User: Which sequence fits this backbone?
């Protein structure tokens, strides 16, 4: 049985105190507690500080282009739908450059767990404002303050067809492990938006800020009620951040509706290696 340590890669090089450490620890713990091994998981990483986890997590993994982590994961899931498939990306990468893929991945209900590091800035490129930053936020790319309102990522996921939407806080790893386990166990498109303080470039949305403004959802919250879920998701505009599973329903995943995947995976087809060799020959 795998342990969290089995998922350890190289030593992380994130800034001391970065919320990414909490996400990395909880993802490894959740995978181990659910019985996964490094060879049973595929992770598609975006670009940015979150994408550096590609080196820090021991699993089958790939870097997508900026904003393209999800289509890489969809390709992997369709090739081998038996493999647990995960996307790890930043809020700028996934909601900004990858926003189009985000919407279509949700409406397809692809069986992929998406973990978004939401720190409201582009941390790797030194603190430009991300699409999740609040209106008026000042950064080196927006010295006069942002004109647009922040993107409501969870409402967008719910309305476009995602079947699991949750939010976690990187400062509460025990709670986050349970949320990640629920997301990884869900069949269909599952989004976990993680409130992840950037201690270097974002001096507004700090650990103290989220301790003050975030709260755990009560057990009586009706997560199958789309209207109630949307009301909770939209609290972001009032600087309130519900933590927990905001929305969850059951419906067929994308791959379950493809007749060509009923008997076996694409990668296990008898002539799959031959076809791949032919395709690769075109690029030699």
Assistant:
């Amino acid at each position: 049985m795998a342990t969290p340590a089995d998922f350890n890669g190289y030593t992380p090089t994130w800034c001391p105190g970065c919320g990414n450490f909490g996400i990395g620890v909880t993802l490894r713990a959740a995978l181990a507690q659910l019985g996964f091994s490094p060879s049973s998981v595929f992770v598609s990483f975006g670009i940015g500080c979150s994408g550096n986890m590609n080196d820090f997590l021991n699993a089958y993994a790939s870097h997508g282009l900026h904003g393209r982590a999800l289509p890489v994961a969809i390709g992997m899931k369709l090739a081998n739908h038996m493999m647990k498939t995960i996307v790890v990306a930043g809020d700028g990468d996934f909601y900004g450059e990858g926003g189009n893929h985000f919407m279509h991945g949700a409406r397809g209900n692809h069986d992929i767990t998406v973990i978004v590091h939401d720190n409201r800035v582009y941390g790797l490129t030194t603190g430009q404002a991300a699409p999740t930053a609040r209106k008026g936020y000042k950064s080196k790319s927006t010295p006069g303050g942002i004109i647009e309102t922040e993107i409501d990522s969870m409402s967008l996921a719910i309305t476009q067809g995602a079947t699991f939407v949750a939010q976690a806080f990187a400062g509460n790893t025990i709670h986050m492990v349970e949320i990640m386990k629920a997301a990884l166990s869900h069949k269909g498109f599952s989004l976990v938006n993680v409130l992840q303080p950037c201690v270097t470039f974002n001096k507004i949305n700090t650990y103290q800020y989220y301790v003050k403004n975030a709260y755990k959802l009560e057990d009586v919250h009706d997560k199958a009620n789309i209207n109630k879920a949307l009301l909770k998701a939209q609290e972001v505009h009032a600087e309130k951040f519900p933590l927990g599973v905001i929305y969850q329903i059951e419906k067929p995943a994308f791959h379950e509706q493809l007749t060509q995947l009923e008997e076996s995976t694409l990668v296990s087809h008898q002539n799959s290696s031959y076809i791949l060799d032919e395709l690769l020959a075109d690029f030699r």
Remarks:
- The chain has ten helices and ten strands.
